[in-house]
Amino acid sequence: MPVLPIVRLGHPALRAVARALSPEQLAGAEMQQLIDDLVDTMREAHGVGLAASQVAAEIQVFVYESAGHDIPLRVVVNPMITPQERELVYDWEGCLSIPDLRGMVPRHPEVRVQGLDRSGQPLDYLCRGFEARIVQHEFDHLNGVVFLDRMRDFKTLGYIDEWQRMGDGEGDESAVG
Ligand code: NI
Q1: Percentage of residues of the chain with pLDDT beyond 90
Q2: Considering the entire predicted model, what is its pTM?
Q3: What would the mean pLDDT of 40-57 be, rounded to a whole number?
Q4: 63, 79, 81, 139: which has the highest count of C-beta atoms within 10 A?
Q5: Is residue 173 part of a domain?
Q6: How many other CB atoms are there within 10 angstroms of residue 9's CB atom?
Q7: Does 3 map to a domain?
């Protein structure tokens, strides 16, 4: 399976609003291949999530998975996200399209996810914590939003290798997608 190039901040696809897929488009061989490629590309890049926008495909699809957090592979098409609590919680994030930087990002602790799976069947589930953070990060990508836009304090922004060199563990457990 081909691993696709991940575009970085500056590429217009990362600032575009992705198009919804029709059931016919989703069922097509081309789209099914793209979904396989998204999964392979995410794994190769050691990310916990990847949106189609990040491979310059402006369509509403994202994938995510984290073995370390017991989150099985999910493919979400035409997503709708509904926060379950007004409160926001801060934690570290990074982005495969903004390499090496980490920052503290406020997110809703629990969201409802509605959409379709890769076979066109309806999805409707709740997720919390790390998974909810990944989902909000990837959903943002489909709307042309990156984690930097969500940050409230850029003093928490930094290069992961600078922190690692100092051995203080900042940003080690980031959600990178
Ligand atoms: Ni990202």
Answers
A1: 89
A2: 0.96
A3: 98
A4: 63
A5: no
A6: 13
A7: no
Which residues, chain by chain, have CB under 5 Å from ion ligand 1? 95, 177
The number of domains in the chain is: 1
**Percent of the chain with pLDDT strictly greater than 70:** 99
**Beta-bridge partners for 51:** 62
Strand partners, 95: 98
Q: State pLDDT tens for residues 72-89.
A: 999 999 999 999 988 999
Give residue 134 CA to ligand 1 midpoint distance, Å: 9
- Return all residues near 150 (Cβ < 8 A) that are at least 6 apart: 105, 106, 107, 140
How many angstroms does the Cα of residue 9 sit away from the middle of ligand 1? 10
Q: What is the domain range of residue 91? A: 12-165
The answer to whether residue 66 is domain-embedded is: yes
In the reported structure, the alpha carbon of residue 66 is separated from the centroid of ligand 1 by a whole-number distance in angstroms of 15
138 is catalytic: yes
| Residue 159 CA from chain centroid, whole number | 19
- The reply to whether 177 falls in a domain is no
Q: Tell me, what CATH number does 90's domain have?
A: 3.90.45.10
Catalytic residue among 65, 93, 131, 138: 138
User: What is the mean pLDDT of the segment spanning 55-83?
Assistant: 97
